[in-house]
Amino acid sequence: MLSIRIWVFALSICLVNSFKDSSPFFLFSTSELLASSPDLTSATSLSKVIIPELEACTSDTYIVVSQPGVNAVDYQDRAAPYLRMKMLGDDKSIRSSLAVKEVMGELSGSHLSKVIQEKCGAGHLMVDASTGSFAISEDTKPRVIDLDFPALPSGNGRTQKLIENDAFLASVLDLLSSNKFTVVYTTTPPNAAQPPASAESETYEMDAQFQAPVHMDLKRAFSNGKRASDGNITLPDGPLFERYQYLSPGLFMGLLVSFILISILYVGINGVASLQVSYAAFDKEMGPAAQKKQSQ
């Protein structure tokens, strides 16, 4: 029973590490699109499914949304109500939709925009979401509107910022005069959207897989010296299990070896305890057979 729990725990660690670099993908359109994909796929496989549908040029307006720094958990609990309404079919004008929860790798929104421009002869328009103001002209059809959102903050304001971005997307769609549109909503995971803050963090990240415990001690010594020089004590931000490493690779390997040795010891003790020898086997033979052996 203990071995099963250990292997399940190790498998869960592998699954978390494999999904931390993934992000969702959404697409909805007023046209009939035949694209379909599983909940877990790679960016290369998904692009092979999406691009042929976009090259059909079935819409007058294509809105390519780029939202960096998110994952599938951010879109739970109604964080994007407008997007949720479109994807769930509450809007009867939406005839097709596609949602992929986990996309491994980066699906470039700019590449999809260039494909539509080349294949459909569409005009190009950029919308800056950071300024909060935009203008959409009706001169060019078909057209591609690139809507780039900034990366979500790492603190508690992620949900509120995602709601604001969702409302901004709703405002852009409300200004469209044409009823034939397709929205391609691409995302990137938080790790890809947030580069290292300094060269020091880059150095430690490069060698983390080889000398993680040593570098952790160096970081602590450096941070303690810096706090002492400043005269102030500042605790690091974030949850407890993100600030400290409780299950290091050395400790995990030690537990695994201990489990193997304990298993071997248990089998040995169980084998010795299972031996059954009668007490008569150690008594001296007193019968005729014993006397005959002595006479010989």
Question: What do these coordinates show?
Answer:
- By secondary structure, the protein is an alpha/beta fold.
- The longest helix is centred in the C-terminal third of the chain and has 25 residues, at 249-273.
- The chain is built from 11 helices and 7 strands.
- The chain is elongated.
- Helix content is 47%, strand content 16%.
- Residues 1-18, 195-223 and 225-231 have low confidence and may be disordered.
Oligomer: single chain
State the helical fraction. Answer: 40-55%
Task: Please provide the ordered H/E string of secondary-structure elements.
Answer: HEEHEHEHEEHEHHHHHH
Radius of gyration: 32 Å
- Which overall shape is indicated by the principal axes computed on the Cα atoms? elongated
